[in-house]
Amino acid sequence: MLFDFSNVNTVWSSLLIETLNRLGLKTAIICPGSRSTPLTVALANHSQIETIPVLDERSAAFFAMGIAKRRGTPVALICTSGTAGANFYPAIIEAKESRVSLLVFTADRPPELRNCHAGQAIDQVKLYGHYCNWQTELSIPSIDIAMLRYLRQTMVFAWERSLFPNPGVVHLNCPFREPLAPIIVPEVQASLIGFDGDNFLTGITDKKAFSASPFSSKYLKQWASYSQGIIIAGVAHTQDPKTYCQVIAKLSQYLNYPVLAEALSPVRNFADLNPNLITTYDLILRNPNLAQKLIPDIVIQIGELPTSKELRKWLEDIQPQHWIISSTADNFDSLHNQT
User: Fold this and answer.
1) What is the spatial distance between Cα 119 and Cα 116, in angstroms, rounded to a whole number?
2) Residue 312 class from Cβ within 10 Å (0-12 exposed, 13-18 middle, 19+ buried)?
3) SS3 of 314, please?
4) What is the pLDDT of residues 305-337, one digit of tens each?
């Protein structure tokens, strides 16, 4: 893996691209432009991703769509700021109607250069309307570890949303400040001494086979291989609460993991079904010694994360392997853990 520590933009972009590589990205189509330089350089320097330059944005978008349709996996499409991204629109409409997975990255000016007649600056947020499975604007690049975790997990979620529940388009608007070129900034390099990129991306693998297959016993066996784990039963709105709670109880008994139940989870109303139920976790985690002893190898979260600040801070600090089970396509990973 190649991490470019030259400056903030190169670190951000190389992490973004390497995360996608590990998820299964094989091809990226790049259109020319200045503001997208950090992404372009990161892709050009990556030996495992085929990078194809196409001058015209409209042609590039249909070219990317054709490759994605043939392979059945997402293709990345990159352009500079301004009206360049508007030329992707026809292909994006086609991709939605044809259920073709595309990851569209539009570089953008930072917020301070918008709405002030700066060159090549238009409103690019939600540029493609309802034709996307999901769309967001990334944060301004940062080398803060918490922000790098956010970037890593946003790429994981973007990849999944380009494939499920139906293949389609994900749009990520990417603001960059100068310097756009890989100019060396010694202060950035010094602050990242000791940063282990491989360890930071541990556990991120090709998601297509996992996400496309139905839930099966192999995941139960994988979870059972960890001796210390917890199940978090978050907020849930189910039409059959008793059956819902019975399933969680069976999972808890099979794995021999305790269940931490949010106040708004129906699990609390059927406490007699689950001998491993814990409702006082907030109080327990306020004891530093207990919080240290109870660190799990794995966390299985069902539904939304509880509102407890103690629980959230604990999970954020320990960074466990974190699984989220949900019946919706919403992103329930507010902690940006290795999820």
Assistant:
1) 9
2) middle
3) helix
4) 999 999 999 999 999 999 999 888 889 999 999
Q: Provide the token pair at 334.
A: 């507010």
Q: What is the pLDDT of residues 19-38, one digit of tens each?
A: 999 999 999 999 999 999 99
Q: Which residues pair with 292 in a beta bridge?
A: none
Residue of 221 and 233 predicted with greater confidence: 233
Which tokens hold the place of 197? 């990129």
pLDDT of residue 213: 52
Instruction: Quote the pLDDT of residue 207.
Output: 60
Q: Cα–Cα distance between 95 and 52 in angstroms, integer?
A: 19
In whole angstroms, give the CA distance from residue 298 to residue 335: 15
Report d(CA 14, CA 45) in Å as an integer.
9
Does pTM surpass 0.85? yes
Helix, coil or strand: residue 247: helix
Which tokens sit at 21?
Answer: 């590589």
Say which residue the tokens 């129906």 belong to: 266
Query: What one-character-per-residue DSSP string does 36-53 give?
Result: THHHHHHHHT-TTSEEEE
Tell me how far CA of residue 122 lies from CA of 106, 112, 129, 145, in angstroms: 11, 13, 15, 30
pLDDT over threshold 80, residue 108: yes
Which residue in the block uniquely carries the two structure tokens 């297959």? Answer: 213
- Helix or strand or coil: residue 52? strand
Nearest partner of 103 among 31, 25, 38, judged by Cα = 25
Tell me phi and psi for residue 170, to 5 degrees.
-120, 130
Tokens linked to 47 = 């030996």
